[in-house]
């Protein structure tokens, strides 16, 4: 057995008026709780340092840039890295990234994986951006991820660290089977992900009513069909008038939910996860080398 105790540190709403320091204080408190309950890794939500700003239309770049980090760690976030090293706990943190690249300034919806020594071992930039890029004044809330972010350019890497193979994705990525499968083909054992899922955004009440079901369905199917643990962490509750689902959960490679949050506020859930459980499924039903038939999968990667 290769057990690792893992925590999902769910956040309740972040008000527009909350500062980075306010958010970091909440994250630190949950990191300490996770460590005190034996966790060696804690997963924080998507965009964990600000309110979910894509719900609003901002005309000028400068208005939206206030929600972005120019460096990681930066002055307000460094304490998370130092505390992680002190406590000997790794973490996943989602944030908005303003990146200076060879092709100019780019904005990404990003997560980093930090090891139990406080060092960044991996960075992931959200690939599947939901919503729209145009202003839709008829909507109570926008979902402007397609305006404020560019699609991630780093693919779905898997990192060997802290005794296992870890991958990352962000929110809407969890609904796409390819997300998990690409990482599974790279021997992932635990997929870490944060999310912000408003449950009144589609304009179709019959879909919105199934938000919690679809949240579970996507992560449980992703875990089972790819023989991997999945740790999904929400930012949730009513944030600036927008209701968002909770249900932060830890899912086993069997597809079973082994821990789930029961509130819509700051809450830490912990589970002891045996990474060797992945092997049972990868050596039987999902022995990729023996049972996959990629000759028939061409349309999946066709443009
Ligand atoms: N943050 C994020 O990706 N949220 C989406 C909501 C989509 S509604 C347009 C999600 O898939 O949960």
TrEMBL record:
Keyword Transmembrane helix found: no
TM stretches of this protein: none
InterPro entries linked to this entry: Aliph_Amidase/BUP, C-N_Hydrolase, C-N_Hydrolase_sf
Record's protein name: Predicted amidohydrolase
Keywords on record: Hydrolase
Organism of origin: Albimonas pacifica
Domain of life assignment: Bacteria
Molecular function terms, GO-annotated: hydrolase activity, acting on carbon-nitrogen (but not peptide) bonds, in linear amides
CN hydrolase domain: residues covered: 4-277
PROSITE patterns: CN_HYDROLASE
Any one Pfam family match given in the protein's UniProt record, by short name: CN_hydrolase
CDD domains xref list: DCase
């Amino acid at each position: 057995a290769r057990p690792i105790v893992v925590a999902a540190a769910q956040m309740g709403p972040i008000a527009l008026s909350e500062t980075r320091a306010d958010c970091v204080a909440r994250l630190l408190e949950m990191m300490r709780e996770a460590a005190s309950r034996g966790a060696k890794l804690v997963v924080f939500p998507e965009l964990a340092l600000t309110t979910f700003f894509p719900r609003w239309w901002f005309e000028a770049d400068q208005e939206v840039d206030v929600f972005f980090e120019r460096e990681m760690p930066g002055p307000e976030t460094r304490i998370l890295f130092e505390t992680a090293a002190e406590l000997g706990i790794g973490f996943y943190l989602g944030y908005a990234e303003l990146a200076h690249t060879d092709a100019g300034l780019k904005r990404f919806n990003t997560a980093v994986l930090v090891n139990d020594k406080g060092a960044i071992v991996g960075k992931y930039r959200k690939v599947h951006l939901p919503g729209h890029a145009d202003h839709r004044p008829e909507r109570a809330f926008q979902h402007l991820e397609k305006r404020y972010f560019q699609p991630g350019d780093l693919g779905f890497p898997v990192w060997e660290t802290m005794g296992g193979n870890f991958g990352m994705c962000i929110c809407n990525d969890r609904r796409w089977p390819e997300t998990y499968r690409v990482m599974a083909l790279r021997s992932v054992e635990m997929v870490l992900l944060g999310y912000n899922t408003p449950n009144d955004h589609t304009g179709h009440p019959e879909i919105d009513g199934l938000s919690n079901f679809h949240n579970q369905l996507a992560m449980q199917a992703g875990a089972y069909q790819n023989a991997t643990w999945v740790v999904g962490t929400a930012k949730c509750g009513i944030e600036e008038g927008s209701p968002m689902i909770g249900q932060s959960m830890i899912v086993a490679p069997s597809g079973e939910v082994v821990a789930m949050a029961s509130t819509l506020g700051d809450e830490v859930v912990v589970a002891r996860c045996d990474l060797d459980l992945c092997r049972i499924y990868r050596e039987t039903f999902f022995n990729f080398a023996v049972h996959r038939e990629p000759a028939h999968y061409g349309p999946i990667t066709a443009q």
